[in-house]
Each structure stands twice: as structure tokens, then as C-alpha cells.
Specification:
Blueprint (H helix, E strand, L loop, with lengths): L1 E4 L1 H9 L4 E5 L4 E5 L5 E5 L8 H4 L6 H7 L4 H5 L4 E5 L19 E2 L2 E2 L7 H29 L2 E9 L12 E3 L6 H18 L9 E3 L8 H9 L3 E9 L12 H19 L19 H14 L4 H5 L4 H10 L17 H9 L9 H22 L4 H11 L4 H11 L15 H14 L4 E5 L6 E4 L4 E5 L6 H23 L5 H4 L4 H15 L5 H20 L2 H11 L4 H12 L9 H15 L15 H9 L11 H4 L8 H9 L2
Parallel strand pairs: 1-2, 4-5, 4-8, 8-11, 9-10, 12-14
Antiparallel strand pairs: 2-3, 3-5, 6-7, 9-11, 13-14
Length: 662
């Protein structure tokens, strides 16, 4: 909650290391302390407030004042652990000038006042200036006491169109008041981080030191003279994010700079202090009410979108019977459930959610992409059973690449030399095996049999159920593989997502199917239960999707798969139906490509954050960012297969095939 406090009340809270957010009672600036990190971000020219008493003396228009202010620099730093943001215009008093000269007479060649300010007004403005530096001084002292040293990123912007004698960089760091020998490594690290973390639309990032500004202003001088163990980095951002003449802004560029700058700051501050920083993990009580409200509304709205529920044919069994009665010379006419939402009203509500309540740029970007992904799912569901469904499916899931097809054909050439095993698990025996593992994980999950699904099994995240095909039968290895797949990954990520302070990962990140299925298949392998038959099945799904895209006839794909594999007729029908349901569902090729990417990632990095919910490998860096900010907590449960792999050492063929998937 944003408080209103006096200068002394703010200082008292800082002196006791209290976390809080407050606007000073005279309105000149706000302070936000979410965690006492060794770094601060300031935006002392972000404000444009200009009280009416000043306007009667000022001869400059609001547009003229706005031109020399630094709009959106507050947005660039909002959400960082410690921020100081000015609200008053620099034309009232300039926090980057000394106390005795903080009120302009002339600025940029223009007289500011047509009548002199009264002594009362001048003293009021000077007191606001002094208030800011009293708070800044107390804050830096507190951080130096805790961390031995401190870094301040002082963010400004500059108008570049009037600079004609040199090439202007996107970021300029002024070093005049920096002890470059002492702080060389941090400066270099920050400059490199700006270059590597920025992805600005249609703009090449450039970083220079002392090219257009030198860092000679007052805040830098104040820190340099008062604090020997604090580095202040004056950062000027070129106004590429707006039209500096008209004031029109470019939201995508603003978001890119905010996210890139904050990432660069976090990257630079890794290891900065001798006191290791551990992000304070936020529970719901610590989160901003606006963020929680936004998150709750998005979750409540979007939980109605269950793609698999709507694309599962309700007449699967009758159409399968017709298909075999006509000896495969029949195109199944699947029917589907009616959509229970108004898609137009749904999209309207979705895009009217208050995204501005999400302060963290990294978190905000994730929500943006999730919202767009949900909108695509709505497009998919409104076209179930129509020709458009196929094209909407391609928009969301894509199609197999040449590499995917090559991997599939490679796997299909592997001979299945596994000895036949009697299928001896069905019905209650399957349920009992699943329940035993669920109890070992101590999670609240149910198991039920159903004849309403095409797949052998699926997890219903909303109901927290593993639904198993009533007609399915499994041998021991197949059953164990299914358990490690459905419970070990899908159920656990459902439970882990519920433990998060936000519902974001219950909804699922874009492309989460690719990653979640890759994790699940790899879990089958790590547990020692992946078979050549299973790899053949994954490969045939890829071939089925490719064939569906090229030929679009169910019967042709069915007969083609039968001709290239030893797949039993009913199993083949089920596999093809998975691909053709809805009107052409390309999702199934993702299982093999997802496995390929998880194999690669597992060898190179720690992937535990992927178990925090319905995540995506594509967003692993973003997950680390929001974890660093405290919005994501470590997964409560990790699959046993990943903790203690029991890959069958004797099954050299499986190991070879897994290592050969490219």
C-alpha cells in the first residue's frame, strides 16, 4: 500500500530497514523499498507536476516544459527493489542541480519566469529539494551499512535531434564523478549487460561513455563527495521511445527498454556485494493488490478455455465403428461439444484487463504473451469442426520441420526387439498403481476411468484428476511410463503451480505443451521405462501430422501409417484421430521435438524452474527474472525420475536412440 509520510517518517523507516512504499507528504517524490538490495534506481527528472502557483509566474508552456523533462524514465525502473522517483517538474526545482541553483532563471536559452517567484514559493521548492537529498543520504547510509557498498543507477533521457555533430548512442553513461579505477569492472559489466539484454524493435543498441553527456550533474557529485563506497552511474537514454517533438510515445519500445534495462541491472548486480542477495519470495500478502486483482481476473476468465475438452470428439466410438465396417474407406465425421462462451465478449474482457497494474516489466511481458496465447486458443475453439481450425492450429503449434521429420524416420528404422510382454494391467489395477504413487508424493489428486477421451490418459488440471482411457491396457513398463509421465510431470506441475503466489503458471505459458510433453517423455526415459515401441509411437505422430498437412484425408493417412508400421488397426485409428480431430490438430508432433529440446537443455543447464507450473523452455530466462524479483518460488515437488534417474543401463539401444535425436 502506498503511504503518505513526512521526510522524517521515511527516514525512520529506512533506518530500521523497513520495507514500504510511500509518497512524501509534500508530493515531490515517491520511494519504494521492497527489499534492501545493494542497488537503487532513481528517476529524478521523470515528473511533470507544476503547481498552479508556479504557472502564474511561468512563461513556458506545458509542451515546452515537457520537451526537456524525462518522461517514462520512471516506467523504466518501476518494480525494481529500491526506487526513488521524482514527481515535480525540473522547471519547478531541478534535483540534479545544487540547492543554491536548483531553481532556473533561464533554461536552454529561454527565460523561465515572466515575474519573479515569491520568497515563500522559492523556500518551499528549496525545502522539497533538501527533503529528497535527506532521504537519499539516509538510504545510501543504510545500504552501505548492510552491504558495505552501494550502486545507484540514475536514469535520464535526452533529446537527440538537436545534436548534429556526432552519432548519438542509445545509452550514454557519464563518468565524470566515477572513480574508474575502483569501479571499472562494474561499469564494464553494466555496459555489456545493456548491449546483451536489450532487444529494442527495429533499433540497434549502442552504449557509449561520455559521448553526449559527461555525468557532471549534482546527484552524481553529491554521491561522489559524500559516499566513497557508492557508485552512481548516470545513464542517459536516447528518446528513441517517443517523438521528442510531438511527445507521441512508442509503447513497444518503452516496454523493451524497461525490460532490458531491469535485466541489465540485475545482471550487473550479481555478485556486486559481499553480502549475497537472496530475492525475497513473495507470498500473496506481500503482493500489490492491483496485481493480485489482475491475476485473479485473468485466471477466472481464462479457466473456461479448455482446448482438449472441446476438441475431443463426442462420437469417437461410433465413427470408429463405421470406419472399420467400411474397411477404412470412410472419412469420419466427428462431432464436438458446444462452446460455452461468447468469443467476442470473451476477447473484449480479456484485452480490457488492467495490465498496467503489473509493475515488473518481465512479469508484464509474460502476461502479455499469455493473454495473446489465450486469444489464439479462443480463435481455435470457435473454429472446431471447420476448415479454419486447421490453420488456427498451425498458428499456435506450427508444423513439423525437416529435422522433426528426419528424427521421426530415424526412430522408425530402429527395430523393436523387446520381448512380448503380457498385458496384465487394467481397470482397478491401473487405478491402484496410480494412487500408490500419488500418495508417495503426498498430493491431492484423483484417478478416474473414462471412455470419453482418445488418449490413453490425460490430466485435467482444473479438477486435479488423472483421467485414464477405460479401454486401455498396459504391461508393467507401459504402466510405469504412464505414471512417470502423467503424475511425475503433469500432476506435479499442476500442484507446483497452485503453490505459486500468482496464477500465471496455472494458466500456462505460450508453447507450454511443447515443453511439458518433452519433460514428461524424458521422465519416462529417466525412470527406465521408455521403450522403442513408445518412440515409434511418437515418431508416427510426427509422420501423421506431416501427412495430414499434405493430404488432409483421414483414410489416406491411416492406410499410410499402417503400411510403414506394425501398428495395430485400432491403435492406428486412435493415433490418426488425435491428429485429425477438430479439423486438423497439429499439436502431436510437439512430443518428439519437445523431447529433443529437453534432452539438450538437461545436458546444459539447471531446468528445475520448468517444474514450477505449466512453463515453457522458451521462457526459462524470464522465469529466472521473475524468480529473482520474488514473484516465482522454487518448485515444491521435483519428479523422482529427475531426482534419482534409473535409466536401464542394459538398454543400450534406447540410450543410443536418445543420444542420436538431433
Amino acid at each position: 500500500m502506498m503511504l503518505t509520510l513526512t521526510t522524517n517518517e521515511i527516514i525512520d523507516k529506512v533506518n530500521t530497514n523497513e520495507c514500504f512504499e510511500a509518497t512524501v507528504d509534500h508530493g515531490g517524490f515517491s520511494i519504494s523499498i521492497r527489499e534492501y538490495t545493494p542497488f537503487i534506481a532513481t528517476a529524478i527528472h521523470a515528473g511533470s507536476n507544476f503547481e498552479s502557483a508556479l504557472k502564474s509566474h511561468c512563461q513556458l508552456t506545458e509542451t515546452e516544459r515537457y520537451f526537456e523533462e524525462d518522461p517514462f524514465t520512471d516506467h523504466f525502473i518501476t518494480g525494481l527493489p529500491i526506487t526513488l522517483i521524482a514527481h515535480d517538474s525540473r522547471y519547478a526545482y531541478d534535483l540534479n542541480r545544487a540547492l543554491d541553483s536548483c531553481i532556473y532563471d533561464t533554461a536552454w536559452g529561454k527565460a523561465v519566469w515572466h515575474t519573479p517567484l515569491t520568497n515563500k514559493l522559492r523556500n518551499s521548492l528549496i525545502a522539497k529539494h533538501a527533503s529528497y537529498y535527506e532521504v537519499l543520504s539516509a538510504l545510501v547510509t543504510a545500504i552501505e551499512t548492510t552491504h558495505q557498498k552501494c550502486c545507484i543507477i540514475d536514469v535520464h533521457s535526452y533529446n537527440y535531434q538537436r545534436i548534429t555533430d556526432k552519432v548519438t548512442p542509445v545509452f550514454n553513461i557519464g563518468t565524470h564523478f566515477i572513480n574508474k579505477r575502483k569501479w571499472h569492472n562494474t561499469l564494464r559489466k553494466f555496459s555489456l549487460a545493456l548491449l546483451t539484454e536489450m532487444d529494442i524493435p527495429n533499433i540497434e543498441t549502442t552504449v557509449e561513455h561520455d559521448l553526449v553527456f559527461y555525468g557532471r550533474a549534482y546527484q552524481a557529485e553529491f554521491i561522489h563527495t559524500q559516499f566513497k563506497n557508492t557508485l552512481l552511474i548516470p545513464l542517459e537514454v536516447k528518446k528513441i521511445y517517443m517523438d521528442e517533438l510531438s511527445g507521441e510515445n512508442y509503447p513497444l519500445v518503452i516496454e523493451a527498454i524497461a525490460q532490458g534495462l531491469q535485466s541489465a541491472i540485475y545482471k550487473t548486480m550479481e555478485g556486486f556485494s559481499k553480502t549475497p542477495r537472496q530475492a525475497r519470495q513473495k507470498n500473496k500478502g506481500m503482493l500489490d493488490k492491483g496485481l493480485l486483482s489482475f491475476d485473479k481476473r485473468l485466471f477466472q476468465l481464462s479457466r473456461k478455455i479448455d482446448v482438449l475438452n472441446y476438441v475431443n470428439p463426442i462420437n469417437f466410438h461410433t465413427e470408429k465403428k463405421k470406419f472399420f465396417q467400411k474397411r477404412g474407406d470412410y472419412e469420419p465425421k466427428f462431432h464436438y461439444r458446444q462452446l460455452k462462451i461468447n468469443p467476442f465478449e470473451f476477447r473484449e474482457k480479456l484485452y480490457h484487463l488492467p495490465l498496467h497494474d503489473v509493475e515488473s516489466p518481465a512479469l508484464r511481458q509474460l502476461y502479455c504473451e499469455v493473454i495473446d496465447s489465450i486469444a489464439l486458443d479462443v480463435d481455435l475453439l470457435t473454429s472446431v469442426g471447420k476448415d479454419e481450425f486447421f490453420y488456427n492450429s498451425l498458428r499456435i503449434y506450427g508444423e513439423p520441420s525437416n529435422r522433426d521429420i528426419a528424427n521421426a524416420n530415424f526412430l522408425l528404422h530402429a527395430p523393436d526387439i523387446t520381448k512380448p510382454c503380457k498385458t496384465n494391467y487394467e481397470g482397478d489395477e491401473i487405478i491402484n498403481a496410480f494412487e500408490e504413487v500419488i500418495q508417495s508424493y503426498q498430493i491431492d489428486f484423483k484417478i478416474k476411468l473414462s471412455d470419453q477421451i482418445i488418449a490413453k490418459a490425460m490430466v485435467d488440471n482444473g479438477k486435479k484428476e488423472v483421467v485414464i482411457n477405460k479401454n486401455a491396457k498396459f504391461n508393467h513398463k507401459e504402466l510405469q511410463a504412464l505414471i512417470h509421465h502423467e503424475v511425475g510431470v503433469h500432476a506435479l506441475t499442476t500442484i507446483n503451480a497452485e503453490a505459486q503466489p500468482l496464477s500465471l503458471l496455472r494458466l500456462g505459458l505460450p508453447n507450454n505443451t511443447h515443453t511439458q510433453e518433452g519433460l514428461a517423455i524424458f521422465s519416462e526415459y529417466l525412470s527406465g521405462n521408455l521403450t522403442i515401441k513408445r518412440l515409434h509411437e511418437l515418431a508416427l505422430r510426427v509422420i501423421a501430422v506431416e501427412h495430414m498437412i499434405k493430404h488432409m484425408q483421414f483414410s489416406k493417412t491411416y492406410h499410410y501409417l499402417r503400411s510403414i508400421s506394425g501398428l495395430e488397426s485400432h491403435a492406428c485409428f486412435r493415433l490418426v484421430a488425435r491428429v485429425y480431430r477438430g479439423g486438423g490438430f497439429s499439436k502431436d508432433f510437439l512430443y518428439l521435438s519437445g523431447l529433443r529440446e529437453i534432452i539438450d537443455a538437461h545436458q546444459r543447464m539447471d531446468i528445475n524452474l520448468l517444474f514450477t507450473g505449466k512453463t515453457s523452455l522458451k521462457y526459462l530466462d524470464s522465469l529466472h527474472k521473475i524468480a529473482n524479483e520474488g514473484y516465482l518460488i522454487a518448485p515444491k515437488l521435483i519428479p523422482v525420475s529427475y531426482q534419482s534417474p534409473t535409466v536401464d543401463a542394459d538398454d543400450q539401444i534406447i540410450r543410443y536412440l536418445m543420444q542420436s535425436i538431433k
